[in-house]
Structures are given as C-alpha cells and as structure tokens.
Amino acid sequence: MITGLSHVSIVVPDLRAAAQRLGEVYGLTLGETKVNEQQGVRLAYVELGNARIELMEPARPDSPVSKFLERNPAGGIHHFCLEVDNVEAATKAIGEKGVRVLGEGRPQRNVHGQSIAFVHPKDFLGALVELEEHHG
C-alpha cells in the first residue's frame, strides 16, 4: 500500500524569507511557487532526489495553515506525505481498520493534480499524514 516518502511539509509565515534562509544557510534552492486554492496555501518544494521539503504559507486567512500559524507563529512541521499506488484503495483499506480519513470522503488534489487524502493524527501516532497517489 505505502510505496515511499514523498515529502515533509513545513508551514512558514513567509515563503520568500524561508527560501532565502534555506539558500543562504543550507545551499538549498526552492522551486516555483504554486497555489492550491482548495487548501488555501502557497507552496514550493526543495527537491532532494529521493524526497522533497514542501514549504507552505497561507494564501487566505481561513486556511488550515493559517490556523497552524496562529498556534505556532514561527511555523514548523505540519505533516509528512507518504506515496501510495491508489489513494482510494488505500483509504478504503485503512478505513476498514478504523482509521479516520479527513475531509468526509471528498476527493482532493494537490497542485500537481494527484489524488490525495489526509489521515487523522490520532490514527497515526499523533502525526498528520498525507497520502499521495503516484503512478510509475
């Protein structure tokens, strides 16, 4: 069911400032900024070869990452993302084992158009987990 780690998502109050810091201190380059209207975030990735770091900042005040920043003004790790072959099959299989999937079963897509779902933190050792569908 799970095929690998896709990325770790970090919420930041200022995407531009975070990109500058990662570049100056760690030599990391942030890719193109994209907007996920459905989730209310602006985001960009640092490509690391076998995984990515996703930086997110709120695109609107009612987004989940805005609420995260209210509780954590400096930002921090928001969730990690696991790759699966089929999100619908994976959520059905874990749902049959009592795992809660957030979003009431509504289909969700990331900025790349891939199917995604989120597992309730109480059902994954206290961590918010995104499942992301990958093909090939």
What does this structure look like?
The chain has 136 residues and is of the alpha+beta class. The chain has one domain (2-133): 2,3-Dihydroxybiphenyl 1,2-Dioxygenase, domain 1 (Roll), CATH 3.10.180. Helices cover 21% and strands 37% of the residues. The chain is built from three helices and nine strands, in the order βαβββαβαββββ. Strands 1, 2, 3, 4, 5, 6, 7, 8 and 9 form a nine-stranded mixed beta sheet that branches. A hairpin with a 5-residue loop joins strand 7 and strand 8 (115-119). The longest helix has 12 residues, at 15-26. It is globular.
Keywords:
single chain; 136 residues; alpha+beta; 2,3-Dihydroxybiphenyl 1,2-Dioxygenase, domain 1; nine-stranded mixed beta sheet; 3 helices; 9 strands
How would the blueprint of this fold be written?
Layout: E1 2-11, H1 15-26, E2 34-36, E3 41-47, E4 52-58, H2 64-71, E5 76-84, H3 87-95, E6 101-102, E7 108-109, E8 115-119, E9 129-133
Parallel strand pairs: 1-4, 5-9
Antiparallel strand pairs: 1-5, 2-3, 3-4, 6-8, 7-8, 8-9
